[in-house]
Every structure is written in structure tokens, then in C-alpha cells.
Backbone:
């Protein structure tokens, strides 16, 4: 078992002929994900890594019945790509694109909710269910199947923790990157709920960072609804206030809201074992699972 | 992206919000001239963005042009929170009957824009939020339809305004929300928004910041950018695809990925060191990017050692290692460098780095310990 993507995933790639889109489609196909179609306006008739390209989502959906879409379209055009996916009935849309203005994301977020679809990202590495489907830009080979569900706002920091888990003999059910922007489609709470309901997931690792209060909201949810053990890590303990740390959403406000210390405190109060460094995560997971 | 207060006032005026911008003056002579032109009581103030400027003595009331000149002499050249005052604003004095707060921001937990209003004007909103949150009234902006006029009126009534004052208030609320949305702001704030003795609304002080990601829609904003030297370096870095933030420590950090870069700073601290910067070199970590990162980090004379932390994902470790070696050849780095290389083809990468005389280790903890020791040596 796993969450959101698996061997039944039929993936469509939006922006498949672009530099990022074509490169990562190759990697995704190589991993064994079932990629059924790609879309680039004017790209019809081409193939990328053996995947047929269509001009419109409408056409691609009619001919290939995808159930997940991944977007590698530049920031200026990415909101339109999300609308196109949702309007064509794709239930799960993953947006890798970084740099989409907040003013564009506010209506996108509301629209996706209204249509009952799910958006992952933007500004995220995607999602992987080891051995079944890789839908993103993460290095597939560091992941192995196992009992740990992982959710993170970051990219390379996620790989770091996944690698540490794998080295320690702890595989993953699914690893989800929710993204580093101020407005993201899927929150910690959404993913925690999915992991809680996934029988194969025995423990959950959540990796947060400074900015916003999604970690605090997650802590409340963990207290109320999560019965499985949770291990956490928060990046940015040394970040100064008022400065954006790379991610558009990673900023401690002038008023001092969104610090790592506050988030760690909230998670600890919810019974989460909070690691002081990424390499400490596997040990805490093992302790929670009573592994030797 | 931040802009000056007087520029914010200009934008507000463009949207039809009444302001009291004043005149910019850079010398005592200009201050005196501006005060003489205003022909009455003026306020001379430093256009700095930090709160607490009143306490610093950077806002002075002057009853004559001569008094204004002396106020200008005192404020020009003043140091406020590390920023030297190079210009002042000379604004006509106004008779304040009541002060309000009005702001538009993103309400992150709800993923919606929100208008905040309070009858506690002139005080930082964060302080009001902490001490008396019930005094802040809010209205969410509909993501498809914008702010409705009824919401703006309701805010006015909730602040206790008399019926004949609500119309003028609601008009300003709607205009500020429109400005926020059309100009891709991340903050649009009027504090205080005042009602004068004569019953007129006036935006006395305002702050506007913009979404960096939306600047492609507003190329004209570049010339408004309010920058000190540090921010100029950060901007230069961003133009080469590098996220850089200067900090006060002595250990330079070069990392791929924002989350990992923050975790690397934390690791340095955990091992007893102080990071000199945040730096995300971007996805590829090519020789060009690494060379640029070296020059950014070594421009800081405090830096005593550099930690490079790369987790090779899609980018292979051996390619990154060649990049680092090449960049070192191009930029003469004199301080010790510790490299942590892990992930794809990491062993090959570490071997390449060893050949080039670099410490290359496999874990972040080991690297952090080594770089802290190197900086202390």
C-alpha cells in the first residue's frame, strides 16, 4: 500500500517537450512509472522517451485516460496549466514549477478545491511510491519500499532524510514533497491524514521549515487524529527574521511568527519526536517502532 | 521587494487614496525651502521602514522654516538601526482627530488575502495582534470576485465609525485591496490612517512590498527598489539563480537546495560554529554557479572556512566535484574548504576532490564538525 500514486498511476506530463519536462520524463519512464501522454501546444505527433505528445489536455485525456498530471511549465504559464488539468477532470495535479506569483495561486487554490481535485505543490519535488511510481524530480534510487511515510516542504533536504532512512534499513511507503511556497495545494494535515489511513504506513516523518504555521496546524491534527508514531525535523533554527531563506514561503515574519523554535515546541507538545539534525531521524523512527 | 515610504504614498495616490506625502529633501537648505513652501507647521521625518523611528528622534514637528532646518540638520546623517539617513520628508502638519490601522496581507493559514483594520492606529499591528487581538477586524478577499463593498462597509461599522464616516473609509479599503491585487503586493499597509479634525481621511504613513515572483508583470518596479548594500548583493546573487542571505558568523555555506541549506546552517550551529550566510546554489551546482557562490561567500572578510554541502540527486556527484575543482581554479579561495558530498556517484566525486587536495566527507555531521574546527584553527 501507499498513498496517491502507485502502479495504477497513469501519468500525463504537461510541458513535456521543454528542457525540464523532457529530461525528467526520461527519468520517470526509466523508473518504471506508467507515463501515458504528454502535452505541449503545437507538439502533436512528437514523442518524448516513447511517450506520445498531444496539443491539448482535452485530446490527451480522451485518447489515453490519465489519472495524474505533472506540470513542468514555466511560472508565467503554470496557473493556466493547472486550470487545464483540473477542467479536464484530472483528479491529482502535481506542479513542480517554482516562482508562481501568490496573486495567481490564490484563485488557483480556491478553484482546485471547488472542483474537488487535489493539487500538490507548486515549488515541490513531487511524490514517489518506491518500486511503483516516481512522479517528480527526486533521485529514484535512494528510495526503497518500506513502512515509513514521509512528508516535507523541501527538496534536497527530503532526499537527505530519505537516504538516511534507507541506509538505516527503513524503507518508505510514499515520500511526498508538498512545496516551499506560501500557498500550496496540499498541506501537512492532508498528507498526515492519508498516511494515518494507509495500513502499510507504520510511522510518519514530517520535515518542516520556518515560515507560516502549517507545522503548528499539523501538530494540532496529530494530537487530535494521528495514532501512528511521528518523527519531525524543522529546518531554519539559525534563520534570521524578515529574510526569505530561498523558498518563497520560508520567512520568519517581522513580528517573529513562524520560527523553528515555535514549530518544534508545538510538535513536541503533540508527542512528535523532534530530531535536532537530519541524521537523527532514523534512530528516532526505530525507537518509536520499537526496532532494535 | 521593499520600496520607500514616499514611493508607497505615490502608489496610494495613484489609486485615489488621499495621502500626505511631503517633499523629499537631502540637505538642510532643501528642508528649509520645503517648509517655507508648505507655509505652516510641518513634520520632518526620516523615510525609514523600521518602526520606532519616533523614539529614535527621527520625526520632528517644526513651526517655522528655521525650526524645520534645524530638525533637518539633526535627522540627516542620523543612524537608525544601522541605516544612515540620507534624505528626509517634509510634510504639512495635520490635526489628527482619530488614528486607524488598515492593511492587506496574505493570510497563510487560510490561503486567502485578508484586509485587517483596527481603531488602534499608529501602533505596530503585530503588537496589537499580540496584546489585544479582539481590536483587529478582518475580511477575506474573495479569490475570484475581489473584496465586496459590503465587506468594506462592515469593517467600518465594526471599528465604531459613525455612519457618515463609513463611506469614506470603505472607499479607501476597496482602493487599497485593488492596489494590492493589481500590483502583486505582499503587504499594503496604512498606519496610521487618520481622520482629521476637519473630518477628512488621510493616509499618513504607508508601506508597500511586492512579490518578487510577479516582477515580470511590473518591469517598472525595478527602479523603485529600496536597497542597501547587503540587499544589492542578494539581488545580484538571485540574478544568477543563487539564493543568498548574509549572516553574522564566520563559516561560509554553499549548499544545493533551500531546505538543506537551512539544515546546514543549523548543523554548523549545533557543532558550535556560526554560519556566515545562507546560500542555495540551485539545482545543477555547475562550475559557473559554484564559482559565483565562492565569490559571494569570500567577499565577506569574516569568513574563516567554507562548508560545501551537496546532496547529489539528479545531478551526479562526480560532475559536481569537477565543478567545484574548476571553480576553485577560477576563484582564488584562501580559507580552508570542507566538502560534504553524498548521493548519486558520491564516491567517485569524493575521489576527484581528494585528487584536488580537498577534504571530502560523506556525512553532514562530520563536515560540520570539521569546518567548525577549521574556522577555529
Residues:
Amino acid at each position: 500500500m501507499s498513498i496517491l500514486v502507485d502502479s495504477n498511476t497513469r501519468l500525463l506530463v504537461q510541458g513535456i517537450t521543454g528542457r525540464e519536462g523532457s529530461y525528467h520524463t526520461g527519468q520517470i519512464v526509466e523508473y518504471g512509472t506508467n507515463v501515458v501522454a504528454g502535452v505541449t501546444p503545437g507538439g502533436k505527433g512528437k514523442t518524448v522517451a516513447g511517450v506520445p505528445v498531444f496539443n491539448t489536455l482535452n485530446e490527451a485525456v480522451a485518447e489515453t485516460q490519465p489519472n495524474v498530471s505533472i506540470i513542468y511549465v514555466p511560472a508565467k504559464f503554470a496557473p493556466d496549466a493547472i486550470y487545464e488539468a483540473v477542467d479536464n477532470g484530472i483528479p491529482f495535479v502535481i506542479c513542480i514549477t517554482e516562482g508562481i506569483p501568490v496573486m495567481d495561486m490564490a484563485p488557483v487554490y480556491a478553484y482546485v478545491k471547488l472542483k474537488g481535485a487535489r493539487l500538490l505543490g507548486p515549488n515541490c519535488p513531487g511524490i514517489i511510491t518506491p518500486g511503483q511510481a516516481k512522479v517528480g524530480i527526486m533521485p529514484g534510487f535512494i528510495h526503497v519500499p518500506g513502512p515509513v511515510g514521509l512528508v516535507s516542504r523541501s527538496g534536497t533536504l527530503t532526499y537527505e532524510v530519505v537516504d538516511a532512512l534507507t541506509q538505516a534499513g527503513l524503507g518508505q511507503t510514499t515520500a511526498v514533497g508538498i512545496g516551499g511556497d506560501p500557498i500550496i495545494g496540499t498541506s501537512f494535515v492532508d498528507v498526515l491524514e492519508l498516511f494515518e489511513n494507509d495500513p502499510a504506513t507504520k510511522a510518519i516523518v514530517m520535515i518542516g521549515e520556518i515560515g507560516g504555521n502549517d507545522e503548528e496546524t499539523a501538530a494540532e491534527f496529530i494530537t487530535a487524529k494521528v495514532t501512528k508514531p511521528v518523527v519531525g525535523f524543522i529546518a531554519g533554527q539559525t534563520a534570521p527574521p524578515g529574510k526569505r531563506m530561498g523558498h518563497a514561503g520560508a520567512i520568519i515574519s517581522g513580528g517573529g511568527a513562524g520560527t523553528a523554535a515555535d514549530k518544534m515546541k508545538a510538535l513536541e507538545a503533540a508527542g512528535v519526536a523532534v530530531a535536532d539534525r537530519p541524521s537523527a531521524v532514523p534512530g528516532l523512527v526505530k525507537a518509536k517502532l520499537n526496532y532494535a | 521587494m521593499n520600496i520607500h515610504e514616499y514611493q508607497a504614498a505615490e502608489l496610494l495616490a495613484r489609486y485615489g487614496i488621499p495621502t500626505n506625502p511631503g517633499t523629499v529633501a537631502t540637505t538642510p537648505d532643501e528642508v528649509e525651502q520645503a517648509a517655507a513652501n508648505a507655509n505652516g507647521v510641518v513634520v520632518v521625518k526620516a523615510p525609514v521602514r523600521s518602526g520606532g523611528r519616533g523614539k529614535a528622534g527621527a520625526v520632528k514637528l517644526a513651526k517655522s522654516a528655521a525650526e524645520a532646518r534645524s530638525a533637518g540638520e539633526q535627522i540627516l546623517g542620523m543612524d537608525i538601526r544601522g541605516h544612515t539617513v540620507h534624505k528626509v520628508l517634509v510634510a504639512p502638519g495635520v490635526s489628527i482627530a482619530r488614528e486607524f490601522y488598515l492593511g492587506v496581507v496574505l493570510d497563510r493559514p487560510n490561503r486567502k488575502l485578508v484586509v485587517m483594520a483596527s481603531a488602534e492606529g499608529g501602533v505596530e499591528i503585530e503588537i496589537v495582534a499580540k496584546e489585544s487581538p479582539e481590536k483587529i477586524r478582518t475580511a477575506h478577499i474573495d479569490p475570484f470576485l475581489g473584496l465586496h463593498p459590503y465587506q468594506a462597509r462592515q469593517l467600518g461599522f465594526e471599528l465604531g465609525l459613525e455612519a457618515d464616516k463609513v463611506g469614506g473609509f470603505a472607499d479607501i479599503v476597496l482602493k487599497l485591496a485593488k492596489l494590492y491585487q493589481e500590483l502583486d503586493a505582499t503587504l499594503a499597509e496604512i498606519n496610521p490612517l487618520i481622520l482629521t479634525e476637519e473630518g477628512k481621511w488621510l493616509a499618513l504613513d504607508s508601506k508597500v512590498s511586492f512579490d518578487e515572483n510577479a516582477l515580470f508583470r511590473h518591469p517598472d518596479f525595478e527602479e523603485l527598489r529600496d536597497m542597501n548594500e547587503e540587499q544589492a548583493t542578494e539581488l545580484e546573487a538571485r540574478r544568477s539563480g543563487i539564493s543568498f542571505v548574509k549572516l553574522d558568523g564566520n563559516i561560509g555555506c554553499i549548499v544545493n537546495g533551500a531546505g538543506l541549506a537551512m539544515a546546514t546552517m543549523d548543523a554548523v550551529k549545533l557543532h558550535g560554529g556560526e554560519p556566515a550566510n545562507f546560500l542555495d546554489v540551485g539545482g545543477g551546482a555547475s562550475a559557473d554557479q559554484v564559482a559565483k557562490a565562492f565569490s559571494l561567500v569570500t567577499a565577506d572578510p569574516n569568513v574563516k572556512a567554507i562548508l560545501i554541502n551537496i546532496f547529489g540527486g539528479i545531478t551526479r556527484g562526480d560532475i559536481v566535484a569537477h565543478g567545484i575543482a574548476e571553480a576553485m581554479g577560477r576563484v582564488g579561495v584562501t580559507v580552508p574548504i570542507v566538502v560534504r558530498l553524498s548521493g548519486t556517484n558520491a564516491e567517485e566525486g569524493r575521489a576527484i576532490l581528494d585528487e584536488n587536495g580537498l577534504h571530502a566527507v560523506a556525512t553532514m555531521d562530520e563536515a560540520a564538525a570539521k569546518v567548525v574546527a577549521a574556522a577555529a584553527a
User: Anything to note?
Assistant: The radius of gyration of chain A is 18 Å. Chain A touches chain B through 67 residues (CB under 8 Å).
